Every structure is written in C-alpha cells, then in structure tokens.
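Notes, p. 3: input format for complexes.
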Amino acid sequence: MTTNTQWWQEAVVYQVYPRSFQDSNGDGIGDLKGIIQRLDYLKKLGISAIWLSPVYRSPNDDNGYDISDYEQIMAEFGTMDDMDRLIQEAQQREIKIIMDLVVNHTSDEHPWFIESRASKENPYRDFYVWREGANGQAPNDLESTFLGSAWQLDEPTGDYYLHLFSQKQPDLNWENPSVRQAIYDMMNFWIDKGIGGFRMDVIDLVGKLPDQKITGNGPKLHEYLQEMNAQTFGGKDLLTVGETWGATPEIAKLYSDPQRNELSMVFQFEHVALDEEPGKSKWDLRPLQIPELKNVFSKWQTELGNQGWNSLFWNNHDLPRIVSRWGNDGSYRVQSAKMLAILLHMLKGTPYIYQGEEIGMTNRVIQDISEVEDIESKNMYADRIEKGYSKADILTSINTKGRDNARTPMQWDNTTNAGFTTNTPWLAVNKNYQEINVEQALADSNSIFYTYQKLIELRKNHPLIIWGNFELVTDTAEEVFAYYRHYQGESWLIVCNFSDQTQPFSLNKTTTETIIANTEKEYHQLSDRTLAPYEAFVVKLSNISE
Ligand code: TEU
Ligand code: CA
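Output follows (546 residues plus calcium ion):
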C-alpha cells in the first residue's frame, strides 16, 4: 500500500564516520568543517540524508559512542556553530542530517555518572544500574560485548555498575523515569535544530533486566519506544532507525509497524552473521553460502509486508568492507562492487551507503596489534593471547572482521594521505589510495561511483523500486542471485552472479529495456546465457509471455 508515503521510504542514506571523513584543520582528525567541504560531492552522488556517527563530547574510549555531553560537540570535531552550519548547508542541498542517538549508556565522564558514583544517596544514583556484589564477586556472570564481566566494582560505594560495552560506558537505568525524561529533553533539543531524525544505537538493549541476564528485547522495550515517540519525534516527519542485533521479522514489525508509533525501521543483522560459525563470535569465520543469503534476504523482503519497512545495508562503521568480504578486492574489485550495489539497491527498503563504499574501498592489512585503534579488536586480542591462540590467527581475524577496516580515512585523491589530511592521520590510510580514490572515480565514467549514482537516480524515478513486490527466482545456479520486482503490471528482473566463475543463466523471457548493468552486453533475450564473473544486470520484462 502506498497511501501514507514517507520521505524516508524514497530516500538513500549515506553514513559519515566523522573522524575519518575529511580533516579541515590539519590535526589528522576528520571534523564538521571537513564534512561541509564535501557536501557537494554527496549532492553529486544524489543521497537524501546523512547518518552522522556521534559528534558529541566524548573521551573517545569507543570513538564517540561514549558520550560525556549530549548537547556539546566534541572539541576535535568543531563547535556547535559548525554543527548548526552543517545542518543548514546540508538543508540547502536537500540533505537531512540523521543524528546518532547513543542512550543505552553514557561515558563514565558524563556528569550524571560522576554524580551517580559519588554516593548511594546522590540524586543521580539511580540514573545507572548499580548492584551489590555477591560474596565479594560480581552480581552475576553477565558479559560485556567488549569481553570480560559486564559488572565493574566501583569505589567509593563498593557497589558494581553495569556496562554492556566498555568499562567507560556505564549503562543508563531506563527503568528510572527521570532518565527517560532527560533523554527525551535532549532529543527535543536536537529536533529543534532541524535535524532529519535519529539512528538509535543498540536500542534493543534499553529494556534490559540484568538480574535475569536479559539484555536484548526486554519486556518494556516497546513501551519505552512508544513513550519516546510520543514525547519527541512522533508526528514530526523524521527518520528513525534502530540498531537491533536481535531482530527477527516478527520483532521488526513491532518496531516499524506504522500503527504502533515506534520507529521508521530497524537495522537487522541476520545476513551479517552468515559468515560466522553459528553460536560463536564474529571472529570465528566460515565461508558465506549464497543460498543462505538468498533465503535471509527473501525472508526479510516478503515477511514485513505492510507492517514494517526494511533498511538495506552491506556496511557500517562496525563491519568489514563488503567488497573484501563478499566480493573480490583483487582483479574483480570493480565488477563485484557494482554487482553488490545493484543487488542491494534494487531491493525494497531504504538503502544505506557507508562512506567509501561508493568507490569500492577495501579492507586494510595489518601486521601487528600496535596498528589497531579499535577497542573491540584490542580487547579480543588480549583475551585470545591469554587463551593461547596464535598471534597470526588473531591478526587474520582482525584483518577479516576488525572494525578499523571500515574506519581508515576516506580516500579522496592520490596525494599524501589521500587528501584526507595534511598531517599524520589518526588511523593510517589504506595503502591502495593511489588507485582507489574519489578523484579517480569521478574521472572514470565506468567507475563504481557512477553505478551508485545511477542506482540512486533510478530509485528517484521508478516507484517500482520503492513499492514493487519481491519474488525470488528459484531455478538458478546456486551462486546466481536473481529476483523480480512487480509493480502495477510491470516486472523487472535483477540477475547477479555472486561468484568469480562464469555461471549459466536461462529464462524463457524477453525484455524491453536494460535498466542498469555492469557489462556492455545486450540483454534482449535471456535464454541460454553465460554470466561473466560477478555480472549483474537489471531488465524490464516484456509483458507478452512466450
Ligand atoms: O554497536 C553495537 C554492537 O553490539 C557492536 O559492538 C557490535 O557487536 C560489533 O561492533 C560488531 O562488530 C553499536 C555501535 O555501532 C558501535 O560502534 C559501538 O561500539 C557500540 O554500539 C557501543 O555503543
Ligand atoms: Ca581536524
């Protein structure tokens, strides 16, 4: 049903990781003025909104996901004036700014926590989750995502506080109505600035019941989100997207059914886990099985129906680069990056592009743990060294899955440090910047950039891409991912060879138009074809069946 069309259903969002996007003042750290300098580039790409990873004041234990003041800008990134200018300059280019809302936890340097830990009688005590130890031990064996106990013993009171992430990220106590009110006030402060919405960090954890060791999907989660909606963005035409690692389609409908007044959509991660050993961690690797990817995508494309809305993504600041992960970052880099783009952007939902994805940026290769900045990788390294893993094995895991892969500086041109900074960058630039950079991409009419630009343009001009029904083509080779989109009597066929081998493809249908492809081939008839490695094309099918 297309009755209540929302702007974010037609949008493509671009994620900026500010620390690594563009440095404007030569301190080696990306900043707000740097983003403003690059808005024309994003306008050229054609995106409608920027998801801005956190820019708030933070001691940077987890690169801004540990916030010490929600209403101030991190000094390294600039000032509130710069932020206001960014919102305004973006608006002039019809680009909305989506702020990252990190409210499961704060920094331990947030004034609320400094008060909270001071004494049991402090009015802010119940802003966080405090428990007494059990026989001199942590209250229970709940673990932090960044490893080790989720409980930290704290002087002066001798109680433990909960931290589902690092020790410098104490969890807020959402059961306390004053906490929720303080968060809503802060959200309204940002809404009043004219932002376009919120991306909500680990929002599925806020209903946690730590004593029962329930973290995700706690019993009051949706009650809290409905309350938040009513008190902040409800009725204000904003995009809200929750980061929800534990979402199934059933759960995603609870968040995004328009009748329920919660969020616009969620990020679900089912496809992201497909190259992990089931039940183990992200570091325990296994090869991606294409049939499983088809199943997961088909399920999400069909099961939300009209009671929810999908987000579509391959990358973010926590994930390895998709072309290195499920494409081919060697001789088929350009072909496979375009295939992945076509596959994702022809699906139903709101696509998200992570900075550098549009030029096919790749993972980096490190030789030593000293090159790592990311707290998650560092903690994993220490943990596995202690458990007896070999250094080489651990470094392989970090090179494959570590979060710094996504966080190396944006590659703008072939000058020193890729045009990101004139100084030493906070994290080394990927060695391949002389071949892979924006300047090169813009100069080459066959580049990955122009495939993304065209996909975004197509979405603006073809309601079929936004509203059409999805249907998987089932009788294909295993490594061919093909699907139809059907809308108002029109059908498009999307065919993607998800492998570095040629693959057979045959369909007894003819076409009237090639919409986009990553080859120069002609696609009038579709029977008995041989797909080149990573070949991808989209065609409009003739109505007359043969
Ligand atoms: O990520 C949630 C989260 O669970 C990640 O730590 C994830 O498990 C891991 O990175 C997968 O590689 C969000 C943010 O996106 C992340 O950057 C933060 O570190 C985390 O929350 C804490 O705020
Ligand atoms: Ca800077």
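The radius of gyration is 24 Å.
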